Amino acid sequence: MASPDWTLTYTDFSPAAQGLREALCTLGNGYFCTRGALPHAEADEVNYPGTYLAGGYNRLTTTVAGRDIVNEDLVNLPNWLRLRFRILTEGEPRAEWFTLATADLLDYRQELSLRDGLLSWALRFRDRHGRTTAVGVRRLVSMDDMHLAAQEMVITPEDWSGTIEVDSTLDGRIINAGVARYRDLASSHLDIVEACPRRGARSGAELCLLVTEFTQSRLRIAQAARTLAYRDGAAVDAPPRTGAAPGAVYQTFRLEARQGEAVRVEKVVALYTGRDRAISEPGAAAIEAADGAPSFAVLAERQAAAWARLWSRCDIIIDSDIDSQMILRLHVFHLLQTLSPNTIDLDVGVPARGWHGEAYRGHVFWDELFILPFLNFRLPAISRAMLRYRYNRLPKARQAAAAAGFRGAMFPWQSGSDGREESQVMHLNPRSGRWVPDNTWAQRHVSLAIAYNAWQYVQATGDRTFLENRGAELMLEVARFFSSLARFDEGRQRYVIRQVMGPDEYHDATPGVAEPGIDNNAYTNVLVAWLMQTADEVLAALDADHRAETVARLGLDAAELERWRDIGRRMIVPFHADDDGAPGIISQFEGYEALREFDWEGYRRRYGDIQRLDRILEAEGDSANCYKLSKQADVLMLFHLFSQPRLAEMLGRLGYDFTPEMWQRNIDYYLARTSHGSTLSYLVHSWVLARSRPDKAWDLFLTALRSDLSDIQGGTTAEGIHLGAMAGTVDLVQRCFTGLEVRDGALHFDPVLTGRLRSLTLKLRWRGHWIDLFLSGGELTLRAHPGWPHPVPVVVRGERVELRPGESHAFPPPPAAAPADDASPAPPDVAMGGPN
After folding, report:
1. Could you read off the pLDDT of 34-65 as tens digits, one per residue?
2. Which of 212, 476, 634, 769 is the most buried (most CB within 10 A)?
3. Are 212 and 193 in contact (CB under 8 A)?
4. From CA 367, how far away is CA 349, in angstroms rounded?
5. Which residues contact 9 (CB under 8 A, 6 or more apart)?
6. What does the alpha-carbon distance between residue 336 and residue 143 come to, in Å, rounded to a whole number?
């Protein structure tokens, strides 16, 4: 029986929900992902099989409105899933292939097992001849061997005997058609190089080989398939007929089926590319891997073991409700399918939508800001690999800055293969049908996120090698760019930054101004001040030799460093008064207070769902630029990244007072003006409310947690899961509700107290070793694993303790907290099983 807190289950087939379920049931291993389409499905209005290689991009040109538009897309690879069957009927030479659309479906059950990474279907149907058949399918994308995937189909005639024909195909006749608003753009990314049968030298089995090549990037993709049929555990003596059609290679089997006896078909597929290491050629590597692969049963056993290792490091156990526990694990599951230990040696970034679909063209935005914190404390080698992706594109970022007239490194808002700006110059508003200018490239804060991520990684891991070889250069070149971007305003005696966009994304221009961008976005300016204040810490963290080498290599001099310090003291942050005239509201940008208030209730009555107000207003001939509204947190992103004392300290260095009362008034002010047009919005607002309104924060957490599962944006999840939101909800539990911070060389905890979270169990990796954490009724228990070479400094609500290796310490709840429930479970001896 499947465990409900480890299994995503569907008990009916819903054509309207199939795209969503395909995305949520995607299987992957950090190297490639395959959507959870049925094995017989073809791309149509209901189904969309898709397989995507991590970093598998190709560039095409489309003429739109008289101009050539170049887009780099994540390519939908040849479909390896095709495994279909039909029951042959005497007198019907062209029997129909089984599909759910034509069958009389009697039973249906689909399960995604998060524990071991298996997707399965169990169904029964009656065909038009009255024959009843049971079909079971299991599928995996191997986490153990990143080049292998497999599926197994078991067909059982319940009340008939006869002949079954099975078709196993590798189909390269594929285009990118997974996002409706992209369908007018060029979409044919594959050239067929080779489609043919091959004989396995090891197994003697006849295999299928399909080799394709991307039309522009010329990346070669090879897939090889081995398909075998069994009855009663023995191979069926039914040699397949193997052939090739234009763009595809197939095998068909004719199998005699007897009433009540199951026939099983296994299909194992190997995928290699021209980028893979330690191979001669991808086609030969794929053939060799498919030929020598073990059975499905052995692959499933190894898959379960690989996932058990990951879960021992990454699971979070909450005592709240079964649905929330399962969804939290679903989010961890999809994060690990996108970024796994298999990813560490790849040159890929963090895609905003995972490798689960074609939304955002598979591009890398700023979402690692929400993703890397979880990995920093679990699988830090993956975080380092993501930062290496950015470092490898530092030359392109330098070129972009220079081309725009600046120094340093200016990273793109959307990144793909080589680090150039991949943002569209135009985008389609599906409400109006109009192509409108896309100014999101002005979100320069992406570079600040990269610098912030690098420093957070170093703080969490103590990885001096990364700081010496990559991290310091990365951060300092971003600082140099923003120093170049900032201008000193003599009248105000402050530094200003003009013509950028903030995280809000609704405001891309000042009303009445032709040029894109707004001035003095508070989020951008405060993070610039943080970076300038941190630059000296970065240099001080290097030993004398590396510091001298870094300064010399970058050509830093005393005057430039002093300018950075001056920016860190005199960056402008605009403020205005709230609705009651009380001062202290951080203005989202300069001039924000002069914008019009928005008629929220009126638009809700007219439109219902107003998450995407930018599209609604553009379709009306209006603009979001004119109103005090936000798609998602902007100013409040500062409250997500920095605690109230830390933000007050930073603003204090700039000469601004910021009290706890002002903190709460800012939250209330902007929360009332946010449409939550991004799935990131709910999790950020949950984070910032956790201290003052924990129950409201928990409600927002549950909304964020269920956002993809419920597809609250009305169809977007089907195009690819929202990876940043998924990882962010997990990090909410890991860091926000535990109050976890790294500060002054110690781990700090200050748990949020809410009766909605009865207990919490997790483990953290800090400076190379593990710590178990158990929270119940406000009492926090920490245990340092025996492998620690020295005591672990921890601070809980201001109480500092040096935990000796193997020692546990319980920190009681604060005096004002309610006593722990007597029924609360006792902390386990070891919070998580598995190796250290």
Report:
1. 999 999 999 999 999 999 999 999 999 998 77
2. 634
3. yes
4. 10
5. 2, 109, 110, 111, 112
6. 10
Alpha-carbon dihedral sign for residues 624, 723, 422, 174:
negative
User: Which tokens go with 828?
Assistant: 């386990």
As a whole number of angstroms, the distance between CA 561 and CA 555 comes to: 11
Q: Are strands 792-796 and 746-749 parallel, antiparallel or unpaired?
A: parallel
By DSSP bridging, strand 190-199 and strand 104-113 are unpaired
Residue 368 makes CB contacts below 8 A (sequence gap 6+) with 349, 350, 386, 449, 450, 453
Q: What is the 3-state composition of the chain as percent helix, strand, coil, each rounded to the nearest 5?
A: 35, 25, 40
pLDDT over 60 (residue 835): no
Q: Alpha carbon of 174 to those of 74, 178, 494, 812: distances in Å?
A: 13, 11, 56, 60
Name which of 107, 141, 187 is nearest 34 in CA terms: 141
Q: Where residue 301 falls among pLDDT bands split at 50, 70, 90?
A: very high
Length of the chain: 836
**Which residue in 152, 266, 505, 779 is the catalytic one?**
505
CB atoms closer than 10 angstroms to residue 698: 23
Return the structure tokens found at 352.
């905003």
Query: 353 vs 52, 271, 337, 361, 740, CA distance in Å?
Result: 12, 22, 12, 9, 27
What's at 629, amino acid-wise? L
pLDDT at 429 over 90: no
Q: Which alpha helices (H) appear in 542-659, and where do they start and end? A: 544-554, 558-570, 600-607, 613-619, 635-641, 644-653
Average per-residue pLDDT for the chain:
93
> What's this model's pTM, rounded to 2 decimal places?
0.95
Count of C-beta atoms within a 10 Å radius of residue 559:
7
Closest alpha carbon to 502 in 468, 527, 473: 527
Count CB atoms within 10 A of the CB of residue 470. Answer: 19
| Token representation of residue 427 | 């985008």
Residue 416 class from Cβ within 10 Å (0-12 exposed, 13-18 middle, 19+ buried)?
Answer: buried
d(CA 370, CA 698): 18
Q: Tell me how crowded residue 155 is: count the other CB atoms within 10 A of its CB.
A: 22
Give the residue among 52, 26, 222, 41 at the shortest CA–CA distance from 140.
26
Q: What is the dihedral of CA 538, 540, 543, 549, to 10 degrees?
A: 60
Tokens of 559: 């005057």
Q: CB–CB of 212/78 below 8 Å?
A: yes
Burial of 304 (0-12, 13-18, 19+ CB in 10 A): middle
CA pair distance 97, 463, nearest whole angstrom: 57
- Is the separation of the CB atoms in 425 and 69 below 8 Å? yes
Amino acid letter for position 345: D
Alpha-carbon distances of 26 from 51, 136, 198, 286, 324, rounded to whole Å = 9, 18, 29, 22, 20
Cα angle 813, 818, 821 (rounded to 5 degrees) comes to: 90
Given a contact cutoff of 8 angstroms between Cβ atoms, the answer to whether 139 and 116 are in contact is: no
The rounded distance, in Å, linking the Cα atoms of 243 and 80 is 16
Round to whole Å and give the CA distance between 409 and 396. Answer: 8
pLDDT at site 816: 65
Phi, psi of 121 (to 5 degrees): -130, 140
Query: So what's the pLDDT on residue 437?
Result: 85
Q: Tens of pLDDT along 328-371?
A: 999 999 999 999 999 999 999 999 999 999 999 999 999 999 99
Q: Furthest-apart CA pair in the chain: how many Å?
A: 92
Beta bridge partners of 596: 627
Q: DSSP string covering 209-226, please?
A: EEEEEETTT--EEEEEEE
Q: Can 505 be counted among the known catalytic residues?
A: yes
Among 155, 159, 176, which Cα is nearest to 167's? Answer: 155
Burial 9-20 (b: 16+ CB within 10 A, else e): ebeebeeeebbb
**Alpha-carbon distance 113 to 311, whole Å?**
13
